TrEMBL record:
Keywords: 4Fe-4S, DNA damage, DNA repair, DNA-binding, Endonuclease, Glycosidase, Hydrolase, Iron, Iron-sulfur, Lyase, Metal-binding, Nuclease. NCBIfam families: nth (TIGR01083). The keyword Iron applies. Belongs to the Nth/MutY family. [4Fe-4S] cluster binds at C194, C201, C204, C210. It comes from Natronobacterium gregoryi (strain ATCC 43098 / DSM 3393 / CCM 3738 / CIP 104747 / IAM 13177 / JCM 8860 / NBRC 102187 / NCIMB 2189 / SP2). Its EC number is 4.2.99.18. It catalyses: 2'-deoxyribonucleotide-(2'-deoxyribose 5'-phosphate)-2'-deoxyribonucleotide-DNA = a 3'-end 2'-deoxyribonucleotide-(2,3-dehydro-2,3-deoxyribose 5'-phosphate)-DNA + a 5'-end 5'-phospho-2'-deoxyribonucleoside-DNA + H(+); Hydrolyzes mismatched double-stranded DNA and polynucleotides, releasing free thymine. One of its GO terms (molecular function) is 4 iron, 4 sulfur cluster binding. GO terms for biological process: base-excision repair, AP site formation. This is Endonuclease III. Its cofactor is [4Fe-4S] cluster. Binds 1 [4Fe-4S] cluster.
Length: 227
């Protein structure tokens, strides 16, 4: 079992520094060319891989141009355009409804505040944080996706389970200048090494400070279950 730093703040700083060295080019993997495309891509990415979303949006963004196009298309047709995406019927409804609101209430522009974004259909705090950070250059929180949730628990940064509570705790210990990058670093490491089912602790740059490291610890702190 690894030995965490004395405080969670020291642990978070060490984790961030090591992962930044390991993944120097870490950034968002969704493809988009404007704020609306970003918003739609993030809505589609819920419980779906970014790779699959990028494949789907390649033709989607060629067909639809602006919020009015999405607002006016029949929902069944939009759903059919998304049929390789998980929960495509629900997501088609979210996108159509959100674009109706953008067209009618926001002069066709994706809003730039947390409250206005989370008022849109299908947009929670995680999605809003991504749009603010990468669409508006506004960083007021940490995006907590499944990778961030898993790694932050495994690495002893939090014992919380709900994304909102995890974000609140991470904000207190992750340096503010790294709030945006912390998510991308966790995603890259979660995909490459610290996977959900079988993390490769033997090839992990964080193993010596990870309280979930498999060689000595029988419990995965992310799930609370035995390895």
């Amino acid at each position: 079992m690894g030995t965490p730093r004395e405080t969670r703040q020291e642990q978070a700083e060490d984790i961030t520094e090591r992962l930044e060295t390991e993944y120097p080019d870490s950034t968002i993997s969704l493809r988009y060319s404007n704020r609306l495309e970003l918003l739609i891509a993030v809505i589609l990415s819920a419980q779906c891989t970014d790779e699959r979303v990028n494949q789907e949006t390649k033709h989607l963004f060629e067909k639809y141009d602006g919020p009015k196009d999405y607002a006016e298309v029949p929902q069944d047709e939009l759903a059919e355009d998304l049929n390789s995406i998980t929960y495509y019927n629900n997501k088609a409804g979210y996108i159509k409804s959100a674009c109706e609101a953008i067209a009618e209430k926001h002069d066709g522009e994706v809003p730039d505040t947390m409250d206005e974004l989370t008022d849109l259909s299908g947009v929670g705090r995680k999605t809003a944080n991504v749009v603010l950070q990468h669409g508006h250059d506004v960083v007021e929180g940490i995006v907590v996706d499944t990778h961030v949730q898993r790694l932050s628990r495994r690495l002893g940064l939090t014992e919380e389970k709900r994304p909102e509570r995890i974000e609140e705790e991470l904000i207190e210990i992750v340096p503010e200048s790294y709030w945006q990058q912390f998510t991308h670093l966790c995603i890259d490491h979660g995909r490459a090494v610290c996977t959900a089912r079988n993390p490769d602790c033997s090839d992990c740059v964080l193993a010596d400070i990870c309280p979930s490291e498999k060689s000595d610890n029988e419990i995965d702190l992310a799930s609370g279950e035995p390895w």
